[in-house]
Design brief:
By secondary structure, the chain is of the alpha/beta class. The chain has 20 helices and 31 strands. Bound molecules: adenosine-5'-triphosphate and magnesium ion.
Length: 656
C-alpha cells in the first residue's frame, strides 16, 4: 500500500460505505442447522480441541499423536496420524451402505449426462489408481491434470490421492506455455488430459496444447488421454488412451493410508497479481477443514441436499468444494461442463430446475453477468428447491447480493459470502446460514476455529468502524504448507509484512458491530488526498446505480490529489449510454460515499479485463488510466478486451 501522506490521520483504509439492510436466517433452517452459535464458544474455549472434533468426522487408519506442531511459519497438523483421502471420499460411503447414493450428476454442455453413484465412483477410482501404478506413478510423484469438466477429472484426482501421488490440476483454458511452466515447476511425470471438451457449443481441443507443452518437458513419461469429443488428434509415442489402459484394470484396489502431512496437491494461484505460486496442500488438515466447512457453511444434509458449485475444478474452489469437501461428507453434487450461456442464457436455472438443486455456490462475476442479462431470465424457471446461496472469488457488491437473494433465492435463501483463497485451502470467513443475520456485502465473522483480524500498518488491531489489513493470527488445518520448492518465497509473501501473522494481501474493515467486510487487494488501494480508499467500496457504489451492471476502479496519478479515481463501467442490458451518464455516476458515488470518493473519470466499456477465473485485473486498467502501454496480459481470459478498453480512453469524460 502507498505510504501515508504526512500530517494526515493514520487510517489504513477508509470506511465509507454504510449498509443497513439485514437478513435473519429462516426459522426452519436455524432450527435444524448443522452448526449453531455454540460452535463459536466451543472453538474459542479450546481451538485445537475444536479442530480435533472436526478431524474425528473423518476415518483415520491411525489416529494422530500431536494435533499441531507450529514452527512458525511452518505448520504440521495431526502429526503421526494416517488416512487415505480417497477412502474417506469414496469407499467409506460404500462401506456404510450408501453405494447406491449419487455422488455426481454430471451434465455435459451439449445436454448429455451421466450419473455416478458412490459405488460407481469407487470402481472408476480403483481402476484409474491401478492404471497410474501400471504407468509407473507412485507415492510422491507429480501428475499434471489438464482436463475439461468431465467425471474423469475428479476420478483422476482421487486416483492420485489414493496412491499418494501429488496432483497439479491446471485449468483447461490455460495456454501451452502456462501448462509447460507448471509441469516444469512441479517436475511432473504424467499428464492426464482429454482430446477436448465442449465450450460455447463447440468441441474445444485440449490435446494439441498438451502436445505443444510436453514437447519441451522431458520429465513427462506419458500422456493419458480421455476421449470426450472424439475430435481428430495427433497421437504420439508416449500417449496412452484412457479407454485402453484404465478400462481393462481391476476395479479392486487397496487404499494404503498416508501420513497426515503427506502432500495431496499443488495448485497454482490464478495469477491476478503476478507470477503464479505453486501452493502446496497436504492430507489430514486439508480434508478436515474442507469437510467441516462444507458441512457448516452450506449446512449440507447428505440425505436430502443436491449441491452445485459452479466453479471449474481447475481452481481451488473446485478442488475443495466440488471434490474433497462434498465427497468427504457424502454429498450429492452436480457438475456442469460448459458455460452459463450455452445454448441459452437460462442454462444455470434450467439445471437448478432439472436437478432440484438446493445449494448453489457461485461467484460475484457470474451474479453480475446474470444481473446484466436481466431478471426475466431466471424468472422463467422453478427455483423453489433452492435453500442456500453461496458466493466466492471477489467481494460481493451489496447490490449483487440483494439481486441474488431476490431473483435467485426468492428472499427465502440466506446468502453466504465466503472469503478464502488458494492458500487457505478452505473457507475462513463466512456467515453460518442458520446462525448469522446477513448483511449484504459482508463476509461477517471468522468461522469457529479461525482467528482473523483487521490491523493497521503497525499490526495493531483496528477498532470497530476502522479499516486496514486482513490477517490470520493462528495457524489453521488447511493452510498452505509452503510454496512448492520455495520456502523463502512462502515466508516473504505471506509472513514478512506483519510479525507472526499471516497476511493474505487483502484489505478489510470492521463495522460498528465488529463484522468483517472485505475491501479488495491492498495492492489496488487508492490514495486520494491522503485517504486510502478501497476499490471495492467505490465499485459497490457504482453497481448500486440502476444503470450499472459491473464496475472496476483504479487510482491514477494526479497532480492535485496524488491519485485520482478512474472508473470503468459496464451498463446493464437495458441502460443506454447517454451524455450525462458520467456526471450522473460521479454524483451518485459522491452522494453514496462522500465527495472524497468521487471519480475523476468514468469510462463506459463493453468488457472488463478478467482472469480465467473471472476476477477483474485492475493492474491492467491502471496502465490504461495512466496512459502506459498495457503490462503482462498472459493471465487474461481474453487479451483483446484491453484493445476495446484502450479505444475508449480518448472519449473519457473528466469534469470539474
Ligand atoms: P493470485 O494470488 O495469483 O493473484 P488470486 O488471488 O486471484 O491469484 P485465488 O486464490 O483464487 O487467486 O483468489 C483468492 C482471492 O480472491 C482472495 O485473496 C481475495 O482477494 C479474493 N476473494 C475470494 N473470495 C472472496 C470474498 N468472498 N470476498 C472478497 N474477496 C474474495
Ligand atoms: Mg491471491
Amino acid at each position: 500500500m502507498a505510504p501515508e501522506t504526512p500530517g494526515t490521520e493514520t487510517q489504513a483504509l477508509s470506511n465509507l460505505l454504510q449498509e443497513n439492510r439485514r437478513f435473519a436466517p429462516p426459522a426452519n433452517l436455524a432450527a435444524a442447522a448443522n452448526v449453531t452459535a455454540a460452535a463459536y464458544d466451543e472453538a474459542a474455549a479450546d481451538r485445537l480441541a475444536f479442530w480435533e472434533r472436526a478431524a474425528d468426522r473423518l476415518t483415520w487408519a491411525k489416529r494422530w499423536d500431536t494435533t499441531l506442531e507450529w514452527n512458525a511459519p511452518f505448520s504440521k497438523w495431526f502429526v503421526g496420524g494416517q488416512l487415505n483421502v480417497a477412502y474417506n471420499c469414496v469407499d467409506h460411503h460404500v462401506e456404510a451402505g450408501n453405494g447406491d447414493k449419487v455422488a455426481y450428476f454430471w451434465e455435459g454442455e451439449p445436454g448429455d449426462s451421466r450419473t455416478l453413484t458412490y459405488a460407481d465412483l469407487q470402481c472408476e477410482v480403483n481402476k484409474a489408481a491401478n492404471a497410474l501404478t501400471e504407468l509407473g506413478v507412485g507415492q510422491g510423484d507429480r501428475v499434471a491434470i489438464y482436463m475439461p469438466m468431465i467425471p474423469e477429472l475428479p476420478i483422476s484426482m482421487l486416483a492420485c490421492a489414493r496412491i499418494g501421488a501429488i496432483h497439479s490440476v491446471v485449468f483447461g483454458g490455460f495456454s501451452a506455455s502456462a501448462l509447460q511452466s507448471r509441469i516444469e515447476d512441479a517436475d511432473a511425470k504424467l499428464v492426464i488430459t482429454a482430446d477436448g471438451g465442449y465450450r460455447r457449443g463447440n468441441p474445444s481441443a485440449l490435446k494439441p496444447t498438451v502436445d505443444e507443452a510436453v514437447a519441451n518437458t522431458p520429465s513427462i513419461q506419458h500422456v493419458l488421454v480421455v476421449k470426450r469429443t472424439n475430435q481428430e488428434i495427433a497421437v504420439n509415442e508416449r500417449d496412452v488412451f484412457w479407454d485402453d489402459i484404465v478400462e481393462r484394470q481391476s476395479d479392486q484396489h487397496v487404499a494404503e493410508p498416508h501420513d497426515a502431512e503427506h502432500p495431496l496437491y499443488i495448485l497454482y494461484t490464478s495469477g491476478t497479481t503476478g507470477k503464479p505460486k505453486g501452493i502446496l496442500h497436504t492430507t489430514g488438515g486439508y480434508l478436515t477443514q474442507t469437510a467441516w466447512t462444507h458441512h457448516a457453511v452450506f449446512d449440507l444434509k447428505p440425505d436430502s441436499d443436491i449441491y452445485w458449485c459452479t466453479a471449474d475444478i481447475g481452481w481451488v474452489t473446485g478442488h475443495s468444494y466440488i471434490v474433497y469437501g462434498p465427497l468427504a461428507n457424502g454429498a450429492t453434487s452436480v457438475i456442469y461442463e460448459g458455460t452459463p450461456d450455452t445454448p441459452h442464457r437460462g442454462r444455470f436455472w434450467e439445471l437448478v430446475q432439472k436437478y432440484k438443486i438446493t445449494i448453489l455456490y457461485t461467484a460475484p462475476t457470474a451474479i453480475r453477468t446474470f444481473m446484466k442479462w436481466g431478471d426475466d431470465i431466471p424468472a422463467k424457471y422453478d427455483m423453489s428447491s433452492l435453500r442456500i446461496l453461496g458466493s466466492v472469488g471477489e467481494p460481493i457488491n451489496p447490490e449483487a447480493y440483494v439481486w441474488y437473494r431476490e431473483h435467485i433465492g426468492h428472499d427465502r435463501c440466506p446468502v453466504v459470502d465466503t472469503w478464502w483463497q488458494t492458500e487457505t485451502g478452505a473457507i475462513m470467513i463466512s456467515p453460518l446460514p442458520g446462525v448469522t443475520s446477513g448483511k449484504p456485502g459482508a463476509a461477517m465473522k471468522p468461522l469457529p476455529g479461525i482467528v482473523a483480524d483487521v490491523v493497521d500498518d503497525q499490526g495493531n488491531s483496528v477498532p470497530n468502524g476502522g479499516g486496514g489489513f486482513l490477517v490470520v493470527k493462528e495457524p489453521w488445518p488447511s493452510m498452505l504448507r509452503t510454496i512448492w520448492g520455495d520456502d523463502q518465497r512462502y515466508i516473504d509473501t505471506y509472513w514478512s509484512r506483519f510479525d507472526g501473522m499471516y497476511f493474505p494481501g487483502d484489505g478489510a474493515k470492521k463495522d460498528e458491530d465488529g463484522d468483517l467486510w472485505l475491501l479488495g487487494r491492498v495492492d489496488d488501494v487508492m490514495l486520494v488526498s491522503g485517504h486510502n480508499i478501497s476499490t471495492t467500496e467505490v465499485e459497490s457504489a457504482l453497481v448500486s446505480h440502476p444503470k450499472v451492471a459491473e464496475a472496476a476502479v483504479v487510482g491514477a496519478t494526479d497532480p492535485v490529489t496524488g491519485q485520482a479515481i478512474v472508473s470503468f463501467v459496464i451498463l446493464r442490458g437495458t441502460a443506454e449510454e447517454s451524455d450525462d451518464i458520467a456526471t450522473d455516476l460521479r454524483n451518485h458515488v459522491a452522494k453514496t460515499l462522500g465527495p472524497i470518493a468521487k471519480p475523476r473519470q468514468i469510462l463506459v466499456v463493453p468488457e472488463l479485463p478478467k482472469t480465467r477465473s473471472g476476477k477483474i485485473m485492475r493492474r491492467l486498467l491502471r496502465d490504461v488510466a495512466e496512459n502506459r502501454s498495457v503490462g503482462d496480459v498472459t493471465t487474461l481470459a481474453d487479451s483483446t478486451v484491453m484493445n476495446l478498453i484502450s479505444e475508449k480512453l480518448p472519449s473519457a469524460k473528466s469534469e470539474d
